[in-house]
Hints:
Largest sheet: 8 strands, mixed
Radius of gyration: 21 Å
CATH topology of the domain at 68-376: TIM Barrel
Bound molecules: zinc ion
CATH superfamily of the domain at 68-376: Metal-dependent hydrolases
CATH architecture of the domain at 68-376: Alpha-Beta Barrel
Amino acid sequence: MSTPVFELVIRNALVATASDTFKADIGIIDGCIAQLGLGLAPGAREIDALGRVVTPGGVDAHCHLDQPMNEPIRMADGFESGTRSAACGGTTTVIPFAAQAKGQSLRAAVEDYHRRADGCAHVDYAFHLIVSDPTPHVLNAELPGLIREGYSSFKVYMTYDDLKLDDGQILDVLDIARQHGAMVMIHAENADCIEWLTKKLEAAGRVAPRFHANSRPMLVEREATHRAIALAELVDVPILIVHVSGREAVDQIRWARSHGLKVFAETCPQYLFLTAEDLGLDNSYMGARCVCSPPPRDKRNQEVIWNGLADGLFTLFSSDHAPFKYDAPEGKKPGGEEVAFRHIPNGIPGLETRMPLLYSEGVLGGRITLNRFVELTATNPAKAYGLHPRKGTIAVGSDADLVIWDERPVTIRNEQLHHDVDYTPYEGIKLQAWPGLTLARGEVVWDGQTFHPRKGRGQFLQCGQPSILPMSKKSSSAFT
Length: 480
Ligand SMILES: [Zn+2]
């Protein structure tokens, strides 16, 4: 037996990237991909993939972990359980949010978030920023400094009292992003329309969880999406519209693209697999589990989202994991009470199910290609946030973050998931695949049956400038 050249060799893989599918062995040294090819030299350890599909580990670029909340609400997952759950579902990089509270320094929010994260994660992580208070100091001193230090993307909200910015403030943030080559993510819903509708519903005694959907109809998302696009056009900077839920918002984005504007779009599993009916058909409280914003729509809108995934409208597919326990005073029953929908914490868990849902129903269901799956779940998120080619692809020099897929029937059961949430909105859904092995920088974190913990294995990643291809001639120099 000759001396091993590699630490690990994955043999006979069907390697899928965003552009190609090919048969190869993958040779790994120091947690990185050192060689790709047929008949590689021996490894100290070998795994035979036997012609199974191997994709890059997922990059979940929209998830919320241990984000500070108002009492008594608390997120169920921090970096430990969140990255555990991610790994078991094939995701090897997460990008949650360091959120600025109004009145707080952005830098203080980042330092606090590092205290919550560092030493806890099982897979690598980066931070987005949430800008809720764009004071002159935040805009002109803190943001440029933080962008240079690797926090090159930020989310702004057009809704939620604690977070929302007015149009002038959004223009200020977009202007900083343009000057420094950062990516701005926008939560597009019209706050005043939502408040007006919520008050009307409350006055009529319509406060069950299902009325959450009535308080945020498609038009409030359509209007805000249109406005976000106009604001970005005025500043001449690319933007990313996050968690797009259906046709009317999709129409706005197609219009923007057809006019040469660089508008990127993200969608999430809840807009493919849930509808407003999951919020309840009667006044039962169970629907609180599926309260998220924008709310899930209907079957026809699901089709529109599937089409956008297939035809290139969407750039990213993220979970928007926002973990709150259902039957808990710190979760969907604040203080132990069943409350009016306005007071139910918004968000659903989805880190672990994101990749299997799209692989099974998208790729094996014949709706998207395998290469498009890789692009949406790994390559584009890594490019959008300046982590590519270290993350998001299978190439020599990239981190050995890999998923070997098992194509076998699986029924989603919360008891088999690894988050700290007491439900999954996808309970009982039958899938045709699940990750059979997840490697994080060359280490097995999930073997298809068992999670292999190593708290602190996950490292903080500094994000660079976005490297998504420009979609129009009106390109700014930051986007190469
Ligand atoms: Zn959002």
